[in-house]
Design goal:
The structure holds two protein chains of two kinds.
Chain A: H1 2-21, H2 25-44, H3 51-57, H4 61-73, H5 77-96, H6 120-142, H7 146-163, H8 168-205, H9 210-218, E1 224-228, E2 235-236, E3 251-257, E4 260-267, H10 274-280, H11 284-348, H12 352-379, H13 382-387, H14 389-399, E5 404-408, H15 416-432, E6 437-444, E7 447-453, H16 460-468, E8 472-476, E9 486-492
Chain B: E1 2-6, H1 10-22, E2 26-31, H2 34-44, E3 48-52, H3 62-73, E4 78-83, H4 88-98, E5 102-106, H5 113-124, E6 129-130, H6 132-139, H7 153-163, H8 168-175, H9 179-193, H10 201-214
Parallel strand pairs in B: 1-2, 1-3, 3-4, 4-5, 5-6
The chains are: A alpha+beta, B alpha/beta.
């Protein structure tokens, strides 16, 4: 037993020395301490060992385990406490304890040459006090992480074994108890951590409506949260719309973040004290407020982009109508008058050369009139508003480069902007089609489906027109495969929310 | 022939009146909108009204609405619509609402006084007139199948003339064939295309136009 302990101790010391030699200081120190510790443990229960050696070594043992843990884990306030407890309790007991005079001593009960007084019961009390303190500190350290737990439990076990070398069973039970306590503490801590994460998650979830959360938490229905605009002055509500100004009788407080004001919280000072509010908007609420601000900014920007797109599409629409009107009221009329003048001139001209020129002029006039007519029709077909989609789509079929057939069409009229969008869609896809086009327009419960089989994906502006009306438009297939390419669109007819362009 | 002219654009109206007067037609009134057109028709009881399709206040289809009313309330007044719009839908609507005695000409035709006079004469005679350009466009429409391929060249010529609203006698004169031959051709056409051969001119024209508009 002794030889084995010495051999193991020597091996561990060699390992420690080698580790220190290659610069692994922490492992080296730990191994050295354990190596020094082992003979002490071995000798502490040996009756033949020189009393002075045993008595000189054992007091150091309580300090060794915390020291080893220190070397393993690095500096820690609690380890320092455990070390101090061991360094005080061990030597102090050695000075007070003399086994020879201890009535409870059963085995190694020789004199303690170091003892200055013979106060065995006091000595044991001192030791146990130190042990409790060190155990508490080591348990605390063990709670920090799994690594700490392992090191802490090992240190505790070694320490308890060192304290009670004669009573391995008691030491084992104690160790198991400590391990259970530490393990239980760790589980409890895990549980608490998870609960904290859940709390945070809940707080983040309610970030979507931090206003409602604050209202219910604080109990003030007058609380409103608004967020500052990134550029310029002014505040937004959580939907990104301009916030309502501070009502009379309301107080407001600004929540500041690292980059300036995060949010403004208006509240009713009669109901809510500033201190209550300050408590409510600390911690997770602050994170939620910042999230709310980001959300408001995104909504604000999305609104701005949507409004811009709406303006562009609406403008293009009114431009098309204006051009059509201008062509009809201006150019067409004047070209017609020109033609009539040419006709009159032709009637009176006698010179064959002049007549020839006039004939050619008249022919050109016809061409110009035809081109103007096609142009103005392309801008905005006259039949659309008056006789509906059927006739207007027929007009497309008249001049399309490919056969265009409309396989289904709702009987009832639809809102003008919807019909215009569908007309624009069919005329564009017909113009770019390279194979026969089949258009089906069908009512759905909440809108109208537009499917063009044979159409190639149209330019983005059509998707904009559909999107502005709250619909969608997407192409499927490029026509390379066997399947006919297809473009499918949808426009809402009911519950259409459309923000008017200001 | 006594005619009223309704056209809101001054230049075009003057030109139109000029063309008609030069051709010896008695223009008994001019109107700038549908309301004054209706009162002119009521007081003058003209043989025909030449009406722009697009007039105040909405500048869309006032002329068509007025045409239907005139044909309904004053059956002795024929209506010739002049239009910038090359839409067969408008033509069908005019034929449907106006019955016989209506015509639809593109404004370009004003430059061809003979065509205007001929059209006026035909509508006053109770026939209907469809601008040849509109018929040409319908005939040349791209189609998946070629239903017109079953027709002979002569039959296609007859079909185009039918669609323009010409009577069998006029078609015979134009194509230098006998009226009897036109009848045979037209019966062939209607059989081949699967149409009912209604001998009322405007019904026949509508059947042909509808067929041309919807045949795939």
């Amino acid at each position: 037993m002794d030889a084995l302990a010495l051999a193991v101790a020597a091996a561990v010391l060699v390992v420690g020395a080698a580790a220190m030699a290659v610069g692994r200081w922490r492992l080296g120190i730990t191994a050295s301490i354990v190596g020094l510790c082992l003979p002490a443990l071995a000798y502490s229960g040996n009756i033949d060992a020189p009393d002075a050696l045993v008595m000189a070594t054992i007091p150091l043992v309580p300090a060794l385990a915390p020291l080893a843990a220190w070397a393993l884990l690095g500096p820690d306030r609690l380890l320092r406490v455990a070390l101090a407890a061991g360094l005080v309790a061990g030597p102090l007991r050695a000075l007070l304890y003399d086994p020879f005079y201890d009535p409870t001593c059963l085995t190694v009960c020789s004199h303690n040459p170091l003892a200055v007084m013979h106060l065995s019961s006091t000595a044991n009390t001192v030791l146990w006090a130190g042990a409790l303190l060190a155990a508490a500190a080591l348990t605390g350290v063990s709670l920090r992480s799994p690594r700490h737990l392992a090191a802490g439990v090992l240190a505790l076990a070694a320490w308890l074994l060192a304290l009670r070398p004669d009573d391995a069973v008691a030491a084992t039970v104690l160790t198991a108890g400590v391990i259970l306590a530490v393990g239980g503490g760790s589980v409890a801590r895990d549980f608490e951590a998870r609960a904290r994460v859940a709390d945070l998650a809940r707080a983040l979830q309610s970030a979507a409506d931090v206003e409602a959360t604050l209202r219910s938490e604080v109990g003030d229905a007058g609380i409103t949260v608004s967020y500052p605009l990134a550029v310029g002055s002014g505040y937004l509500n959580r939907d990104g719309r301009p916030a309502t100004p501070l009502a009379t009788g309301q107080a407001s407080t600004e929540v500041n973040g690292p980059e300036g004001v995060v949010a403004r919280v208006d509240y009713n000072p009669d109901v809510t004290s500033p201190a209550t509010l300050a408590a409510a908007i600390s911690g997770p609420a602050r994170l939620a407020l910042d999230n709310g601000r980001l959300g408001a900014m995104v909504s604000h920007q999305a609104d701005a982009i949507a409004a811009s797109r709406r303006r562009i599409v609406t403008h293009a629409d009114s431009e098309r109508r204006r051009l059509e009107r201008d062509l009809h009221d201006g150019a067409q009329q004047h070209v017609l008058a020109l033609g009539l003048a040419l006709r009159t001139a032709l009637d009176t001209a006698t010179d064959p050369k002049t007549q020839d020129v006039l004939h050619r002029c008249l022919a050109t006039t016809h061409v110009v009139l035809g081109e103007l007519r096609d142009l103005s029709h392309g801008f905005y077909p006259a039949s659309l508003a008056q006789t509906g989609l059927g006739n207007a789509l027929d007009g497309i079929a008249d001049s399309a480069p490919v056969p265009v057939s409309v396989t289904s069409l709702p009987d009832e009229r639809m809102p003008a902007e919807i019909e215009q969008a569908i007309y624009l869609f069919v005329s564009r896809v017909a113009a770019s089609a390279q194979r026969p086009l089949e258009v089906a327009i069908t009512r759905t419960p909440r809108g109208v489906d537009v499917v063009a089989v044979g159409a190639r994906t149209p330019e983005g502006v059509l998707a904009d027109v559909f999107a502005v009306l709250g619909g969608t438009l997407d192409g499927a297939g490029d026509g390379a495969g066997a399947d006919a390419p297809m473009v499918r669109g949808w426009l809402p007819l009911l519950d259409r929310t459309r923000v008017e362009v200001s | 022939m006594r005619v009223v002219v309704a056209e809101d654009q001054m230049l075009t109206r003057e030109g139109l009146v000029h063309v008609l007067r030069d051709a010896g037609i008695d223009v008994v009134g001019e109107a700038g909108d549908a309301t004054s057109l209706m009162s002119l028709v009521a007081t003058e009881k003209p043989d025909a009204a030449v009406v722009d399709i697009r007039m105040p206040p909405t500048h869309t289809d006032e002329g068509l609405v007025a045409a239907a009313r005139i044909r309904h309330e004053y059956p002795d007044t024929a209506v010739l619509i002049v239009s910038q719009h090359i839409e067969s839908g408008f033509v069908l609507r005019l034929l449907d609402e106006g019955g016989g005695g209506v015509g639809y000409l593109l404004k370009d035709r004003i430059l061809d006084p003979a065509a205007v006079l001929d059209s006026l004469r035909r509508v006053v005679a109770g026939e209907c007139v469809v601008d040849p350009f509109i018929v040409t466009r319908l005939l040349s429409r791209e189609r998946r199948t070629d239903p017109l391929g079953a027709l002979s060249e002569r039959e296609r010529e007859v079909l185009a003339n039918l669609a323009e609203g010409l009577t069998n006698a006029e078609i015979a004169r134009r194509l230098f064939i006998t009226e009897r031959t036109v009848e045979v051709h037209s019966r062939q056409i209607f059989t081949k295309l699967g149409l009912d051969d209604d001998q009322t001119t405007n019904r026949r024209v509508m059947a042909v136009l509808t067929y041309l508009r919807t045949a795939p």
